[in-house]
Amino acid sequence: MNNSIIESISAIQRQSPVDIIIHQIRNLIVSGQLKPGDKLPSERILSERFQTSRSYVREAILKLQFYGLLKTNPQSGTYVAGMGINIIDSMIGDLINFNQDDFYALIEARYHLELTAVQLAAIRRTEEDLKILKETMLSFEIKTKNDQSSVEEDMLFHTKIAQATQNNVISSMILHLIPDLVKNITEKKVCGENQVYKAIDEHRAIYEAIEKQNASLAEEAMRTHLNDIWELSQQEIKNRQ
C-alpha cells in the first residue's frame, strides 16, 4: 500500500464526556429548547440525564462559564448567557475544537501566561503562598524519586504559583488550561524520564526566586523550565503551517 495513503489516515478521535456534554448543551441552544436567559437544570438532574458523573457535568459547566456562555447566580442557579444564538453556537464550536486539537496551542498560551504569572507571584507572594508552594514542590520530588507519575503534582505547583499572583483572572486562566494539559501530556508521553528529574532542580530555582521576591530571576527560571516543551510546541506549530 502507498505509504502516503497510510500517513494521511488519522486516528479516530474519541470525545471526552465533557466534550459530549458541551456538544449536547449546544444542540439544546441551537434547537431553541434552551434560549438565552433560560435556567439550566441542576447538576444532579443533568448528570442523571447524561448518565455520567456530576464531576463531568461540573467541568463542562465551568468551561462554558469561563467563556461567558453560561452565567451562574449562587442564589438561583445557572443560566444561558444573554447572547445571540449564532454567537453562542460559534463559540461553543470553537471550544469543542479547541479541547480536541490544540494541545500545542495550549502549551503556547501557558508559556506566555506563566512568564507573567511567576513575576507577579515573586512580587506579591505571601508567607502562606511560600509554604504551600514548598509543600507542592516537595510532593512532586517525592513522587518523581519513587518512580511514580508526578504530572499532576507538576501542574499543581504551577497552579499555586498562579494563585500567588493575587490576580484571580490570571489564576483562573491557568487553572482552565491545566486539565487539558495534564490529559494531553500523559497521553502523548511528552515528558520523558530525564525531563522529569531535571524539573526537580528547575522547580527549586523557581521557588527560590519567588522566595527572594526577585521577579526577573523568577521569569528566567520559569523560562528555563518551560523551554523544552516550548520549543516542541513551536516546531509542531511550524510543521502545520
TrEMBL record:
Q: Which Pfam families match?
A: FCD, GntR
Which InterPro entries does its entry note? Answer: GntR_C (IPR011711), TF_FadR/GntR_C (IPR008920), Tscrpt_reg_HTH_GntR (IPR000524), WH-like_DNA-bd_sf (IPR036388), WH_DNA-bd_sf (IPR036390)
Where's the HTH gntR-type domain? 15-83
SUPFAM superfamilies associated with the record: GntR ligand-binding domain-like (SSF48008), Winged helix' DNA-binding domain (SSF46785)
Q: Does the keyword Cell membrane apply?
A: no
- Which keywords has UniProt assigned to this entry? DNA-binding, Transcription, Transcription regulation
Single GO molecular-function term? DNA binding
Name of the protein this chain belongs to:
FadR family transcriptional regulator
Q: What is the lineage of its organism?
A: Bacteria, Pseudomonadati, Bacteroidota, Sphingobacteriia, Sphingobacteriales
